[in-house]
Design brief:
single chain, alpha+beta, Phosphorylase Kinase, domain 1, Aminoglycoside 3'-phosphotransferase, Chain: A, domain 2, 2 domains, 11 helices, 10 strands, globular
Length: 369
């Protein structure tokens, strides 16, 4: 089957796979389709860079899979979250089924093949409120079940550690990278030098604030829990089923351990400000049933701001390193974007009576490859 799948994948109708390892992809797909009979690839769709939907015809019936190529560390996190951590707390159905895995010969990247969840991700703009509510309740269940759970030691080992020191770590790393850019790499007075200096000034202030923000996170952030780490609406699926919705979360690449405010902030910023209070109220009720007390509005806004600042600082590191090492032309554009995110951030929960507005632009935590 692997040979026939390799030929079918290579003969697909577009060149979007490029040089991404068709042989390994064919092996992973063969695992996913094992025992299903001869398969014919009938369609291939690029969902985003290095993520593809593959449709096969098997015994006259169509079957769809999603294939994603990723780094070994991200693949390991996904596999552990799906096959070990979530099932350990009774949430094995919260992630898509992982059906096949194949790595490059040198171990530099991995293909993973998942069941296709269909077109049920939360809509952009203003998603259906009932579907949003179903996702919020399931996210609250995720956080409550993992709160102070012993498995968090393993989650921290293989995932990302977002303990109260996380902001300070990201800020220090960003400062080191930006400081090395001057003066030999960027000419004084240029746009690149000016944006670097403005970012450094902001990061120096954040560095001074980091200890107080860490104390606030320890006091108000609640128990440590498992975080999805990239909780955008595009990663949340709510499929209508009898009696409600079946919720799944995809892309556990950034999963780790920390305060639930990190996930909640990312999710809230996908919605217009006027809708966020209702989402927080629903989440508050759901975790309250598990005996978890959330802080007030002012404290939550402080925690959300800290989470976003950590994301922005993280995103400043990689373009700075790219400029430092290679003079990469995209580096300046990304530094300008990071500066814009810092300037544009307003309280996630707006003051009462403030305009509803539109969703804020928040940095994805995934660094540029």
């Amino acid at each position: 089957m692997v040979v026939s799948l390799k030929r079918a994948i290579a003969a697909g109708g577009d060149s979007s796979l490029g040089d991404l390892g068709r042989s390994e992809l064919a092996r992973a797909v063969a695992q996913a389709l094992s025992g299903k009979g001869p398969a014919t690839l009938v369609a291939r769709e690029t969902l985003k860079p290095r993520v593809f939907r593959l449709r096969f015809l098997i015994d006259g019936r169509e079957r769809s899979l999603v294939a994603k190529r990723m780094s070994p560390e991200h693949a390991r996190r996904n596999q552990l979250a799906i096959r070990r951590w979530l099932p350990e707390v009774g949430l094995g159905g919260l992630a898509p089924g992982l059906r096949g895995v194949a790595a490059a010969p040198d171990g530099s990247w991995v293909w993973q093949v998942y069941e296709d969840l269909g077109p049920w991700e939360l809509e952009r703009g203003t998603p259906d409120p009932d579907r949003v509510a179903a996702v919020v309740r399931e996210v609250a269940t995720l956080h409550a079940r993992f709160a102070s759970h012993p498995v968090l030691a393993e989650c921290r080992l293989h995932g990302e550690n977002r303990d109260p020191s996380h902001l300070g770590t990201m800020v220090r790393d960003a400062i080191r990278a930006l400081e090395r850019l001057r003066p030999q790499h960027l000419a004084p007075g240029t746009a690149a030098a000016e944006v670097r200096d403005r970012l450094l000034a902001r990061l120096y202030r954040l560095h001074a604030e980091a200890p107080a923000r860490a104390r606030a996170l320890s006091e108000w952030g609640g128990p440590e829990t498992l975080l999805h780490g990239d909780l955008w609406t595009s990663n949340a699926f709510a499929e209508p089923v009898e009696g409600g919705f079946r919720v799944r979360l995809i892309d556990w690449d950034r999963t780790g351990v920390g305060s639930a405010s990190y996930d909640l902030s990312a999710f809230l910023l996908r919605f217009p400000p006027g809708e966020r209070d209702g989402i927080v109220a629903l989440y508050r009720r759901a975790v309250g049933e598990a005996g978890w007390h959330m802080p007030g509005r002012r404290e939550l806004n402080h925690l959300f701001e800290t989470a976003e600042f950590a994301r922005y600082a993280n995103r400043a590191i990689w373009p700075a390193l790219a400029l430092l090492r290679d003079g990469a032309p995209w580096g300046l554009d990304e530094l300008l974007a990071v500066e814009g995110w810092f300037r544009a951030l307003t309280p996630v929960l707006p003051p009462s009576g403030a305009p509803t507005g539109t969703p804020a632009t928040s940095a994805p935590p995934e660094p540029r490859p």
